[in-house]
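ok so i was messing around last nite and threw this chain in just to see what happens. nothing serious, just curious
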Amino acid sequence: PAALRRQAIKEKVLECWLKYPMYGYPRLTILVNKIWQLHTSPAFIYGIMRELGIQSRMVKKMQKPKTYTEYEQRPNLIKKQADNTKVLLTDITYIPVHGKWVYLASLYDPVTRRVVAHKIGSNMTKELATSVIKTPLLQRLGTQIIHSDMGSQYTSDLLEHTLVACGIQHSYSRKGCPGDNARIESFHSILKREYVNAQNFRSLPEVIAGIDAYIRWYNEERISLVA
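result:
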């Protein structure tokens, strides 16, 4: 009977959501259909979630420190790049820990949508920004350009000399235009929405363990809605 089937699906949706509360109805539809070989539609799962009173984790606005740069605008090399140019994106974001901030530096591949390197530190420094620039990794990936914003960590001599030593060009977003680095900004937003906002970190080692686990899951298991 339809009522029994609907109740069974509700139980399956709730089970999946309790395990993956970061998923909204599009990803829950894929997951439920895959696990139990069902053929439900996104609209049907949306209705079930409304009945259950559940939804995906939402973005929580956070006040964060502002960053500044004293340098003139440097070139954006990826605006008209050739299709075969291998580009990685890098950025630093803020993670709250017991009333303070720690900082996550990420290196992101916009084609594979994977985090290829990351590092967490207690201070937002040029050393932290440079720590994800690893020559063997970049050579293996065939990286030609790394794109960042114009923050002081990314215009530092340390990072510039590291890139030159790797034979990699540096591309920059326009000042005040985070959209130029939208793919990695999007990843950091997903990280906050799906994981960080639900945590109450008390120490740096706790953040490191948690973010490491999330990034492994993001790279290897998270359902993508993009073909």
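not much to say yet. Residues 2-52 form one domain.
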